[in-house]
Amino acid sequence: MSLALPILATLALWWISTGAVLVLGERSDATRNTAMVIASLAAFAGLAAIWGVRDITAPWAAYAGALSALAIWAWHEMSFLFGLITGPNRAPCPPGLRGWARFRAAAATLIHHEIALAATVAALGVMSFGADNAVGFQLFGLLFLLRLSSKLNLFFGAPHFADGFLPTRLSYLHSYYSSKPAGLFFMLSAGAIAALSGALLWGAVSAVTPFEAAALALLGALAALGALEHAFLALPVPDSALWRWLLPARDPRRAQDT
């Protein structure tokens, strides 16, 4: 069985969807509002598709589940980067704040976003309970865990981090990042994600059916991208460089955002 297609599809969908969200984040309020309406329709279509293919085990149904999960994820990413669903705290970290107080302040900057993601994971889990095809739920859940690990590493400290993804309206989040040598949590989380990717891809190689091969390859490729994202936190190369050519200059309208 060829695993090239699901792996390449995951890479393409990840790169295109991330770039699209970044580009839209630079646009005017009217454009972002229109984009949110379209994204909402796409997310509802994704929910319907995940339910529609829950008992279909053809390879195309694995792709449909993955694409649907990415559509729902894109809605959450846009709602966060557009400043619509973040958290009650929209202020920079007070100087000298440490320990549990700093963690609470940082969590309050995005807790509403995290609750929305967790609620979506739970809803997709209920929809996919007992289903033959749970790729949509599995991929969205994996995205949630990968992003949570990245956020915790940014808070606890990583050698390098890129701020190219954050629009001006969310610039206060920079103050909660910590730049320091990779610690135990970073090594454990990055190692676990790399091991998970290897296990999933190995499962795809030894899969019995084409559906299982496609599903495991899609998940394994996504986990590999998560491992790459963590690697960027340890290397002096910002991952935002992958989309820098899409954003040659900051839109003047962005500086007016609050």
Summarize the structure.
With 258 residues, the protein is an all-alpha fold. Helix content is 64%, strand content 0%.
Description:
The longest helix has 25 residues, at 210-234. It is globular and about 55 Å long. It has one domain (4-256). Helix content is 64%, strand content 0%. The protein has 8 helices and no strands. By secondary structure, the chain is mainly alpha-helical. Helix 1 crosses helix 8 and helix 2 runs antiparallel to helix 3.
Query: Which parts are unreliable, with pLDDT below 50 for 5 consecutive residues or more?
Result: 248-258
| Overall outline | globular
In DSSP terms (H or I, runs of 4 or more residues), the helix count works out at 8
Taken as a percent bin, the fraction of beta residues is under 5%
> Portion of residues in helices?
55-70%
Largest sheet data: none
What oligomeric state best describes the polypeptide chains here? single chain
In angstroms, what separates the terminal alpha carbons?
Answer: 51 Å
List keywords for this structure.
single chain, mainly alpha, globular, 258 residues
Topology, please?
Layout: H1 4-25, H2 29-52, H3 59-81, H4 99-108, H5 111-127, H6 135-156, H7 184-205, H8 210-234
